[in-house]
């Protein structure tokens, strides 16, 4: 075999997701503005890693918070 079985990868991914959810829940007790900033920074980093492909799938308010877009003028 050259790597883990697909089921093993799913378990690892599920464990990683559960850990991330726990960390976000822990952050949720903190200042909401700080949490929003952390999430915006993570999304901006993910967008950079995806070559800008993520921003098209995010709502405008999140794109603006992450510095991926300028606010639209109503």
Q: How would you sum up this structure, described in words?
A:
The chain is an all-alpha fold. The protein has two domains: 1-30; 31-74, no CATH class. 64% of the residues lie in helices and 0% in strands. The protein is built from three helices and no strands. The protein has helices at 6-28, 32-49, 60-65.
Topology overview:
Blueprint: H1 6-28, H2 32-49, H3 60-65
Total strands: the figure is 0
Largest sheet: none
Based on CA atoms alone, the radius of gyration comes out at: 16 Å
Mean pLDDT across residues: 76
What overall geometry do the principal axes of the alpha carbons give? flat
| Helical residue percent band | 55-70%
Number of H- or I-type helical stretches: 3
SSE pattern, N- to C-terminal: HHH
Report the β-strand fraction as a percent range: under 5%
Given helix and strand content, the structural type is: mainly alpha
Cα distance spanning the termini:
57 Å
- Taking pLDDT < 50 over at least 5 consecutive residues as the criterion, the unreliable ranges are none
Supply the number of structural domains: 2
Note the main attributes of this structure.
74 residues, mainly alpha, 2 domains, flat
Give a concise summary.
The chain is mostly helical. The protein is built from three helices and no strands. The protein starts with 5 loop residues before the first helix and ends in a 9-residue tail after the last helix.
């Amino acid at each position: 075999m050259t790597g883990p079985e697909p089921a093993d990868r799913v378990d690892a991914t599920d464990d990683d997701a559960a850990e991330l959810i726990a960390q976000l829940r822990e952050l949720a007790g903190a200042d909401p503005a700080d949490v929003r900033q952390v999430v915006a920074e993570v999304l901006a980093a993910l967008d950079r890693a995806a070559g800008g492909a993520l921003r098209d799938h995010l709502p405008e308010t999140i794109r603006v918070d992450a510095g991926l877009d300028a606010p639209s003028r109503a």
